[in-house]
TrEMBL record:
Record carries keyword Zinc-finger: no
Entry superkingdom: Bacteria
GO cellular component, one term: membrane
Protein name: EamA domain-containing protein
Length: 142
């Protein structure tokens, strides 16, 4: 499958993730919601891991990879809790999600530039500047 199709499918899954957190936020505490979400995600990941093993695919593991995956897990766990908190405060999904996701994209790009020394074209810089303007416009009045 082409990477762009996979990326768009991932975007759909993240959209559903944010949408259902918004719906759940008024019905469950942030901590309980995040734990349930993470348990379901861990279950799906475990099923995928078992399926890959049954197909005989080798699974690469290294200390560095495990450590970085754990840091990513800590980041997503905290993000889940904070997303429940944000939406629990009544922030509209049409405002909160773009600010959270846009901010995430912006900060990830900055980390890529500063830490990984990645290059940035003028069109990409314009795109990142557009995210900053979009976040500022969305956050006004909320």
């Amino acid at each position: 499958m082409h990477w762009l199709l996979l990326a768009l499918l991932t975007a759909l899954c993240l959209a559903l993730y944010n949408f259902f957190i918004k719906l759940a936020a008024g019905h469950i505490s942030a901590a309980a919601g995040a734990v349930i979400l993470q348990l379901v995600a861990a279950g799906l990941g475990s099923l995928w891991l078992v399926w890959l093993r049954l197909k005989g695919q080798p699974l690469a593991l290294s200390g560095t990879g495990v450590g970085l995956a754990m840091l990513a897990g800590a980041g997503v766990g905290l993000a889940e809790i904070l997303t429940f908190v944000v939406f629990g405060r009544g922030v509209p999904s049409s405002v909160g999600t773009p600010v959270i996701v846009g901010g995430s994209v912006l900060l990830t790009a900055v980390l890529g530039l500063v830490v990984l020394r990645e290059a940035l074209s003028w069109s990409q810089a314009l795109g990142l500047a557009s995210i900053v303007v979009g976040i500022a416009l969305l956050a006004r009045g909320h």
